Amino acid sequence: MTSTDTQKTSRFGPMEVEDWVAVDWGAVRAQFSIRFASGIVIREFCIVKSGDRRWIGLPQRSYKDEWGERQYVDLAKFDSRQAYEDFQREALAAVNCFLAETGQDAP
Q1: Where are the beta strands (DSSP E) in 1-107?
Q2: CA 34, 36, 41: angle at the middle one, nearest 5?
Q3: Are the beta carbons of 15 and 5 closer than 8 angstroms?
Q4: Deepest in the core among 3, 29, 60, 84, taking most CB within 10 A?
Q5: CATH code: domain of residue 34
Q6: Which segments in the chain show pLDDT lower than 70?
């Protein structure tokens, strides 16, 4: 499922949402993979929802800090705020396209 709306002005190229799994882990509402135009597939993105706000959570790794508390670190980062915002906009458009094409409600 490709979001054609974002292809025209896309920084990241067409994205396809794959391996969609709806979940109810507090604010996390779904987990999925994204296939980029280059052919690379990155797994374990998630949809996070808080109030009326919804965003793409990056894949993360958990670890225990020196006090034994579970912490999380993103496995990717963006070189600028603009790159992050562009990714959020384009990835959410791809998610919305996927949901529309598969007849699912937005989480």
Answers
A1: 15-25, 28-36, 41-50, 53-57, 60-64, 70-74
A2: 55
A3: no
A4: 3
A5: 3.30.1120
A6: 1-9
**What is the model's pLDDT at position 34?**
96
Q: Give residue 9's pLDDT.
A: 57
Number of C-beta neighbours around residue 9 at 10 A? 9
Which residue in 79, 83, 88 sits closest to 47, CA to CA?
88
Domain residues for the domain of 60 are 4-99
- Total tally of structural domains belonging to the chain: 1
- Asked if the structure places residue 67 within a domain, the reply is yes
pTM > 0.70: yes
* Dihedral angle sign, alpha carbons of residues 98, 14, 87, 93: negative
